[in-house]
Amino acid sequence: MKAFQESIDKLNTFSERSAKAKELFPKKNTKSNATFKEVKKKLTEMCNSTRRCVYCEDSLGDEVEHIYPKDLFPEKCFDWGNYVYACGPCNGPKNNKFAVFKQEDGSFAVVNPPKGQPSTQPPTGKAALINPRTEDPLQFAILDLSGTFKFFPLPSLSANEKKKMEYSYNEVLRLNHEEREPLRQARENAFGMYKARIAEYVHKKKNNAPLSLLEKLKDGILKESHPTVWKEIQRYYRMGLLVKVDEELKQYFDEAPEALTW
């Protein structure tokens, strides 16, 4: 990876480095490349269960995605910390979309060029896109479990944090958008599935099921899609909100408090 990156970094101008990154990455990101076989193996280990997309948690993650777009940040083209597994429906529309809070004045600036225009070097600043490798998205958003199953900014966010949440969830990934309604429905379905799973666990626990069976049921929960829904169920319980959403589900956690740590 270091050698791949050095072949980009040694070039003199941003336009040269950007073009080289765009040219070189698909040549290296192949099934036969030993380095990228290892990259994909490690990304798979990081994924939930069956290699779900890091963004939507619904579709198969089958594309090595650059969080910082390689055209705009060629210095991160072969940076292991800049990779996640994403699906085509998320990665395609995301493409080169990126924004920063400029260092000079803190203002929000979209840095990806208009369609068909070459990339130009972004201004120095802090990323305005949530980085799932280094940031917890649930520090910015809360999932409404009471009916809409859409993401909303946490009320405690600063103005810049709220903008970062809205830019990431709504403008770039469009996780709440009506054109991605199947995702919202999948999150709602996942809520029902997790409830059924924990109900089964509690039932088996009450009937003195062997520890091996309880561990198997726990493992089944942790391998389901939409793990954010599970995390939000846990958060709602801790905040005292789950009883308002589903009293029966709250009771299951009362009877199996260990599930709060899964």
Instruction: Indicate the overall shape.
Output: globular
Radius of gyration: 21 Å
**What can be said about the biggest beta sheet?**
3 strands, antiparallel
Note the run of SSEs as H and E.
HHHEEHEEEEEHHHHHH
- Classify the helix fraction into a percent range: 40-55%
- Per DSSP, the total helix count is 10
Structural class call reads mainly alpha
Low-pLDDT windows of residues: none
Looking across the biggest beta sheet, what order are the strands in?
4-3-5
Terminal Cα span: 35 Å
Q: How many E strands?
A: 7
Q: Average pLDDT value? A: 96
Beta-strand share of residues = 5-15%
Q: Can you tag this structure with a few keywords?
A:
single chain; 262 residues; 3-stranded antiparallel β-sheet; two-stranded antiparallel sheet; 46% helix
In brief, what are we looking at here?
This protein is mainly α and 262 residues long. It has helices at 2-9, 14-28, 34-46, 88-94, 159-172, 181-206, 211-222, 227-238, 242-245, 247-255; strands spanning 63-66, 83-86, 99-102, 108-110, 125-127, 141-143, 151-153.
Summarize the structure in words.
- The strands form 3 sheets. The chain has a 3-stranded antiparallel beta sheet, with helices on one face. It has a two-stranded antiparallel sheet with strand order 1-2. It has a two-stranded antiparallel sheet with strand order 6-7.
- It is mainly α.
- The longest helix is centred in the C-terminal third of the chain and has 26 residues, at 181-206.
- α1 runs antiparallel to α2.
- It contains 10 helices and 7 strands.
